[in-house]
Amino acid sequence: MWDTVIGLEVHVQLLTESKLFSPTSTRFGAPPNTQAGLVDLGFPGTLPVPNRAAVRMAVAFGLAVGGRIAVRSRFARKSYFYPDLPKGYQISQYDEPIVVGGAIAIGVGEGVKTVPLVRAHLEEDAGKSLHDLYPGRTALDLNRAGIPLLEIVSSPSLASPEEAVAYLKELHTLVCYLGICDGNMQEGSLRCDANVSLRPSPEAPLGTRTEIKNLNSFRFLEQALTYEIRRQAEVLEAGGTVAQETRLYDPDRRETRPMRSKEEAEDYRYFPDPDLLPLVVDETLRAEAQAMLPELPRARAERFVRAYGLEPYAAGVLTSSRPLADYYEAVASAVSGKGKDSARTAAHWVMGDLLGALNRQGIGIEACPLAPTRLAALVLRVEDGTLSGPKAKEVFEALWAGTEEVDALIERLGARQINDREALLELVDRILDAHPRQRQDYLAGKDKLLGFFVGQAVKASGGRANPQELGALFRERLGR
Amino acid sequence: MRGEWHARDVRGLLDALARGEVTPAVLVEHFLERIAEHDPALNCFVTRTAEEARRRAARPLAGALAGIPLAHKDIFCTAGVRTTCASRMLSDFVPPYDATVVRRLDEAGAIVLGKTNMDEFAMGSSNETSVFGPVRNPWDPERVPGGSSGGSAAAVAAGLVPAASGTDTGGSVRQPAAFCGLSGLKPTYGRLSRYGMIAFASSLDQAGFLARTAEDLARLLVVTAGADARDATSSPEAVVDYPAALEAPIRGRTIGVVKEFRDAGLDPRVARLADEALAVLERCGARLVDVSLPRLGLAVPIYYILAPAECSANLARYDGVRYGHRAHDVASLEELYARSRGEGFGPEVKRRIMIGTYVLSHGYYDAYYLKAERARALLQKDFLRVLAEVDVLAGPTTPTVAFRIGEKNDDPLTMYLNDIYTNAVNLAGLPALSIPMGFVDGLPAGLQLIGAPFAEAPLLSVAHRYQQATEWHRARPPRFA
After folding, report:
1. CA–CA separation, A121 vs A99, rounded Å?
2. Cβ-defined contact of B319 to A267 (cutoff 8 Å)
3. What is the pLDDT of residues A355-383, one digit of tens each?
4. Nearest to residue A266, comparing CAs of A81, A413, A87, A98?
5. What is the rounded distance in angstroms from the CA atom of residue B416 to the CA atom of residue B423?
6. Residue A262's pLDDT band (boundaries 50, 70, 90)?
7. Which three-class secondary structure state does DSSP give residue B474?
8. β-pairing, A279-280 with A255-261?
9. Cα Rg of chain B (Å, integer)
10. Short-list A272, A289, A265, CA closest to A97
11. Contacts of residue A96 in chain B, CB cutoff 8 Å?
């Protein structure tokens, strides 16, 4: 058995209106090269001017993870030639990043693990090379050149693909919560490079690592790491050594392949960018970033447990995204105080039927057609006993599909639960009369038959009779 | 006076325009004729903008320089007008934007007659590295005009334009001003926007001007100085009314005479002229104080590490992909790069890119780049310490007068040492100017004055007072009178 050591470098595309060093728009999906201005194209004599909004977002992230915000950081030039890198260098941060340290807590099994961060720094994105658009030629789309990225580097302290995925999910949730990233992984808003190495035991020095580039989904991250760990283990067990290299994951073949090895590694010739003064985060900027911070997912989950009596698991699910937590909170606040379990019932409905319906239609909670107040009305009718479980589901479907209000639907569907003692007793007697043999058996000690009686009665009522009440009445009638 | 407009300075032309003695259109024609007649012998201009200039002169112009013809060093981007940096790499490059300095001079009513020759990408001290060939010094056509702003300097000296823009990374305005008998100003780093000025070494590059007098320099500076949202290194420091500050009294000002400016390489005849110039300033009421900059000798080595380092990255963008020279019939991406850059850049540019790449490389960075940065900080401290005690530092601008074309081409090191008195000023980011202080064998020599950061006003007023007491700045090369 090997001890696995994983560290992630995550590139988060910051949700700014304009690029990191130019006023060009960052809108996704524009026709190629229509969002590439003179500065982005590296025209002679043009100069980078830092985007304050991007800096503010980086500071907000640093505050959210409890990192140290560098009062003074620096942009550096990272030099290499590639056609989609217009200036021949990328403006990044090297030895003086804007955020140092901090940590992210992840759920591991039943417990919580703290993953320390090394740093987070600002850098500009490169453009895109399209190699398969024209045969024998490479096309360039420089719309992405200059888009602001926050690169977040974790310490090598993740012990398994599962932990790596949990970390990435937690980070994803966090940056979306902070409103600094749209979290859209298909569009490349959050990309991940994984460093992985094996060693014989946790006490042994770190083994040689490989870096797997550009993993853009949770699934690929998990698959790539699982493959790479097995590959390295096989190399080591055969007495070989792992080569330090950069690898790419091929999702179709589910394997990683070498991209370039350390021997051919580029010398990036980093040096401070003389076009930019040291980046100073003054009190004003820090205060602006502080003001951006919402209640963070963990704190919110803990509050959901305290205030709404939710199970930690449910609180975790409901705070996994800010719009979902906002939705739940809108429902919960509309029903709270009206019934002892109303907030928990609300959680049950949001997590169950609502998310199910959204999934079926493939839409996100942001686009949910059912207003929280309408779902709250349903929850209240469940809480006050007007609706039984099965009938509530029926009403939910109608509520989801149409515009009618809950009470009108209950009437139209005849879904009101029968709670009236006289009516229920009548039903009880009818069922007992119809099943004399089971009645005998029950009285002889077959307790299980109570469920049979209740089931028959509910069925006979068209699903409307209150099963709890029925159970009590059967016992009353049968004398035990 | 007809036909003598080129004998006037900017101030004189503004007076004549104000009195209605001449119109912008007449001035434009006069100077275009001068260019047509004399430029073939000098090679100052790489692009002429006669038609645009005539159209502009025909329209009403407003501003502090309304109707004044000018030329821009071909390092400043001019919208719709080819901007080459005197390099094959950019020989067809037409920028769609104006440099901020160009735009501000336009807004002040100036009229651009053309773009001037220079050392390729401003790398050189003799104007010999230009792809368009060397510029000749109007005082002696066998000699260099200095560089890299040699075309601008020669054009002003020969009366082809009354003033011109230049850039100064290590002396590229002051040294040609000295060699051509002109006044040349390099303001404090950050005083003028670098936007649209093609970069050589970003932490050292600063736009400047070449003109006949310190007074003209003040007029050019006041309309161009000030913060620019498109240059993060431009300074928010308030702009002074430089022309109004010219008459500030010199009495009581202290002038530091820098001991290290009298080193072994200094031509004794230039040294004598500097002594005489200092004596003039003393007679005008300034107090001379001996000062020392013990680390000045480090300036050239520091400069030739940092400037190439920055240039190696600044010039990486010329890859043949988006604009500029692109090699034909290439078989691979690597060949596209190698041949586009190999064909596009001249030998001096390649030399500096290679030096710069080397000093930034893994394993050499600490020994070269980082050490040079630290030494630069110490040098800067030396200057600021001395400038806390005196108002202005003074010494010769260059160790010699203009040398012969071709004389130093085989030995880059001797060429680099020509900037020994000017390099340090860029490393320290200080304002400095060069003014004519006499002649050695019929060739002009320059006095360099250096000030504290953003102290352009006292610098210009001391130079102005000197020019009220002397006639050197009125001398004109006989062939181009």
Report:
1. 6
2. no
3. 999 999 989 898 999 999 999 999 999 88
4. A81
5. 9
6. low
7. helix
8. unpaired
9. 21
10. A272
11. none
How big is the CA angle at A273 (ends A211 and B364), to the nearest 5 degrees? Answer: 70
Token look-up 């403006």 returns: A91
Residue numbers in A near B319 (CB within 8 A) = 81, 83, 88
- Which part of chain A is CATH 1.10.10.410? 421-478
Residue pair B192/B99 in contact (Cβ under 8 Å)? The answer is no
CB nearest to A88's CB, from B95, B201, B319: B319
Name the region of A234 (left: φ>0; alpha: ψ -120 to 50; beta: rest). alpha
Which strand (E) or helix (H) includes residue B461?
helix B456-469
CA distance A148 to chain B (A): 17
First-to-last C-alpha distance (Å) of chain A: 60
- Domain A421-478 in CATH 3.40.50.720? The answer is no
Write out residues 251-290 of A within 8 Å (CB-CB) of B.
267, 269-271, 273-277
A77: contact with B, CB 8 A cutoff: yes
Assigned token pair, B22: 């001449």
Distance in Å, alpha carbon of B234 to nearest chain A alpha carbon: 10
pLDDT the model gives residue A320 = 86
The pTM (predicted TM-score) of the whole model is 0.89
Q: What residues of A are in contact with residue B203 (Cβ under 8 Å)?
A: 274
Contact B95 A43 (CB under 8 A): yes
Q: Can you tell me whether residue A428 is helix, strand or coil?
A: helix
CB-based contact B325:B343 (threshold 8 Å): yes
Q: How far does the CA of residue A42 sit from the closest CA of chain B (Å)? A: 7
Q: Which DSSP helix (H) or strand (E) runs through A459?
A: helix A449-460
Q: Provide, as residue numbers in chain B, all residues whose Cβ is less than 8 Å from the Cβ of A50.
A: 232
pLDDT of residue A343: 92
Q: Does residue A153 surpass a pLDDT of 70?
A: yes
Question: Min CA distance, B337 vs chain A (Å)?
Answer: 8
Which residues have C-beta within 8 Å of that of residue A198, sequence separation ≥ 6?
A: A2, A3, A4, A5, A207, A229, A232, A233, A236, A242
Count of positions (residues) in chain A:
480
The strand pairing partners of B255, in sequence order, are B288, B392
Tokens of B147: 């560089």
d(Cα B174, Cα B208) in Å, to the nearest integer?
9
Chain B residues with a Cβ under 8 Å from any Cβ in chain A: 76-77, 83, 85, 90, 93, 95-97, 99, 194-199, 201-203, 229-233, 309-310, 312-313, 315-317, 319, 321-323, 333, 337, 357, 360-362, 365, 369
Q: Report pLDDT for B244.
A: 97
Following DSSP, what letter does each residue of B52-89 receive, concatenated?
Answer: HHHHHHHS---STTTT-EEEEETTB-BTTB---TT-GG
CB contact under 8 A, B194 and A47: yes
Residue of A nearest to B369 (CA): A271
Pairing verdict, β A111-124 and A103-108: antiparallel
Provide DSSP, B25-44.
Answer: HHHHHHHHHHHHHHHHHH--
Across chain A, what does the average pLDDT equal?
Answer: 92
pLDDT for the residue B333: 93
Q: A44 to chain B nearest CA, in Å?
A: 5
Q: Does A86 touch chain B (CB under 8 A)?
A: yes
Residues 6+ apart with CB under 8 A from B204: B169, B170, B189, B303, B306, B307, B310, B426, B427
Q: Write the residue in B90, B203, B316 that is nearest to A274 by C-beta.
A: B203
Q: ipTM of this predicted complex?
A: 0.96
Q: Residue B264 pLDDT more than 80?
A: no
Closest residue in chain A to residue B235, using alpha carbons only: A277
Task: Delineate the domains of chain B, giving CATH numbers in brackets.
Answer: 5-294+380-480 (3.90.1300.10)
- Angle formed by the axes of helices A389-401 and A406-413, nearest 10°: 120
